[in-house]
Q: What sequence folds into this?
């Protein structure tokens, strides 16, 4: 059976039917997302008949309806599992229009005003970072933004690396023991080697210990190692802690080493007057990763890499692709600063959200997320059955239910489709991590989430969270 | 001014307003895309007031309306500029729903059935490639699929590369002089070095010369070089030519070198009985890049990397991120096989399109694209004012208007918003490249495009296309 059509009228009908279906299915998704779907992977496959092909359009609609019904929504009030959640109507609107134009962001010739929009957003982010004359580009996620920063840093440390390759320079990268896994992963990808990533211990607040970092650098220099990059984490994955960027910048400047700030989670606090101090020192860093799909609430993925000095992205990424870059100056052809060739437009959604909320809206939203995290921490502290691992520095609240396994609690909550929430190691304990990042989160939902956690803990056997 | 709201009722209103606006704006986009917008970059910025922020929701809608009006649509009948075009209603429907669930594809816990959908699509692609026991993953574009293949190949050639880094092994990569620019670019990123990419000459049909490749490998082995990867191109960027994969596979096997097939453009012919022979030998290759956003017509980006043997992606990409991978076996947690951490769902759109068209529909569609290219070539040959550079092997038709500069013609067509079309170097001549990839393309539109090209050529001064 085959329902392809060469008939343009029928095709016009199909796209209109598709738009109608989107409207209808979207409405249904919104209605039911106060609940989570049941998870059982074994049952889903037969139920969904995923292998079917060659079906009429109305069956596609029905199949998508069923699939989306069974897909957990990260905008559900029961979703606390990741460093993103919720839904921004302005951003979603822009994101839903994006595939209709299906713009690729390499040249002004094909992307037109979308290039100017991207430039506008990057300009604002560069300014917020404190870079007077910086540049930036969007990359498909924080890991690849971090990867690109490491490429640029490596090529600065070893100027022949791009053209001639590496030749055993004993390159070394420094990051907190609590930094993101993309740092060693990227070192493995880029020929630096995962073992050449030195993990700097963190203090009891989760911040990289700058005294140890300084000692490591001095030792390594003495032993012939070539420091390539120091990665300071602005918002660690589990605790949401911020490395002391200013102090790290001093060490980086002493040793002439590239300083990258992985602000995938935390850089958005640059927009928040009350908490901006956490990012002080970023203006002295060489590069910054900033994911707008986290605290700025736009759909995945929307990650910017910003650099303090212009020209470095093209130095490491541009190829003369004369079949592609045929018109306009390079400034209008962002493909020269991209790790990708064909590239989805990730800028329009954040531009639309920012257009709506404004700096004032984001300032208030981020302050509110911090307040909610403090509120959640206070509720935990006030409850004799629970124990707070650490006062949250930002929006992650890490805690245990006394005498119960955090992992078991999260697994049970998921199995019973009561709450999507994860756990992580914090100060030697396995803690439940409640992330306050959904802009629609409120006190009531936090109370409800904690009640669910306790209800499940009550029926579980005793367990321990030492690691 | 600030229009953020903590009021849930207002938020529910906003998302419904957003969905209504998407419907309305999408309808307007469809209505006007038989024309191209004027391009002038200098005039767009002031017109669009891109720097404004903090505006009411209806102004966001109005701004998006204006921006999308001014954005070239790659589904316009006047768009021939890239290796993608057109619009697939089933795929677009799925893509528009994707940000509403805002799934990240690292774990079954958060992505649920979307993981099974991705696995289903990858399984079909692995089977089409002829890999009995293969694996795959989606990557954000063909360049990064190619990059990941090069990482895996490099780590196979130098088993210590991932952990210890590179140490001047004189690694070498082989690719056609007509291959994609991502090959040298990626070698530059991965510590191999762009100068260590040897470009193999192509014959007059645009196919890599296997005799020269064989000679290069023998020579390089003798001089202590370490061959890492041979890249065979299935569908070159300008000509759409296919390297003789089977013959390349023989050389790769003789020398024990990793064979990657960059089928970003061309791998979709695996679905087309009439033209599948172009891909013969792929079943002996170690890896294959296949972009569904090209001949399969789904929105950007949708690129799969497929590997003949399972386990290699995780060997090069997996990190033990215990805060993330907490439930289900790795098979259901595709984050262990990804270069990204947070990852957009690129699988649903191709699954939906395939569900609708079926293998039969794709078989017919791809055969039809080839026919259209031959038809266009025949029209060029029959016209004394034009000259065909080469009979198209697949869907790219490269030709000149006699005595007129191809670059000048394309620039004028763009400046006058008559046609989006590009040019490239083919057999020493700068040729106009007409790409027959839009599934809604027909003979009439080809005739119209050629007429526009000739009309513009007529008013241009004489020019030459020698390069």
A:
């Amino acid at each position: 059976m085959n329902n392809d059509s060469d008939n343009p009228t029928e095709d016009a009908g199909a796209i209109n039917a598709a738009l109608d279906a989107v409207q209808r299915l979207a409405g249904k998704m919104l209605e039911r997302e106060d609940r989570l779907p049941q998870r059982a992977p074994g049952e889903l496959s037969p139920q969904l008949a995923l292998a079917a092909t060659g079906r009429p359009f109305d069956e596609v609609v029905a199949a998508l309806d069923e699939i989306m019904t069974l897909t957990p929504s990260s905008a559900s009030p029961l979703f606390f599992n990741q460093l993103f959640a919720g839904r921004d109507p302005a951003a979603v609107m822009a994101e839903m229009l994006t595939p209709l134009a299906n713009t690729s962001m390499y040249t002004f010739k094909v992307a037109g005003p979308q290039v100017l929009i991207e430039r506008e957003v990057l300009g604002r982010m560069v300014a917020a970072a404190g870079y007077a004359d910086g540049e930036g580009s969007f990359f498909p996620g924080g890991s690849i933004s971090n990867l690109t920063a490491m490429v640029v840093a490596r090529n600065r440390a070893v100027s022949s690396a791009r053209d001639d390759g590496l030749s055993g320079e004993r390159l070394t990268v420094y990051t907190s023991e609590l930094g993101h896994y993309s740092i060693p992963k990227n070192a493995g990808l880029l020929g630096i080697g995962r073992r050449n990533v030195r993990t700097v211990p963190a203090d009891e607040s989760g911040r990289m210990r700058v005294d140890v970092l300084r000692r490591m650098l001095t030792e390594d220099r003495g032993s012939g190692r070539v420091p390539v990059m120091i990665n300071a984490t602005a918002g660690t994955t589990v605790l949401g802690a911020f490395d002391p960027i200013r102090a790290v910048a001093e060490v980086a400047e002493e040793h002439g080493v590239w300083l990258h700030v992985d602000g995938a989670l935390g850089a958005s606090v640059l927009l928040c007057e009350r908490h901006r101090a956490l990012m002080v020192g970023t203006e002295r860093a060489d590069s910054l990763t900033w994911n707008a799909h986290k605290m700025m609430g736009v759909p995945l993925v929307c990650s910017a890499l910003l650099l303090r000095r212009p020209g470095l992205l093209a130095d490491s990424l541009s190829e003369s692709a004369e079949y592609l870059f045929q018109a306009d100056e390079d400034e209008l052809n962002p493909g020269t600063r991209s790790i990708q060739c064909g590239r989805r437009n990730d800028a329009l959604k954040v531009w639309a959200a920012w257009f709506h909320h404004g700096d004032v809206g984001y300032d208030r939203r981020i302050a509110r997320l911090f307040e909610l995290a403090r509120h959640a921490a206070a509720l935990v502290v006030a409850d004799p059955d629970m124990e707070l691992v650490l006062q949250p520095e930002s929006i992650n609240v890490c805690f245990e239910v006394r005498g119960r396994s955090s992992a078991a609690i999260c697994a049970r909550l998921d199995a019973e489709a009561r709450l999507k929430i994860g756990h992580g190691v914090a100060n030697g304990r396995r803690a439940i991590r409640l992330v306050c990042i959904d802009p629609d989160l409120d006190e009531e939902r936090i109370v409800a989430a904690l009640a669910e956690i306790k209800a499940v803990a009550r029926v579980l056997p005793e367990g321990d969270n030492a690691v």
In short: The first helix of chain B runs from residue 8 to 32. The first strand of chain B starts at residue 135 and ends at 139.
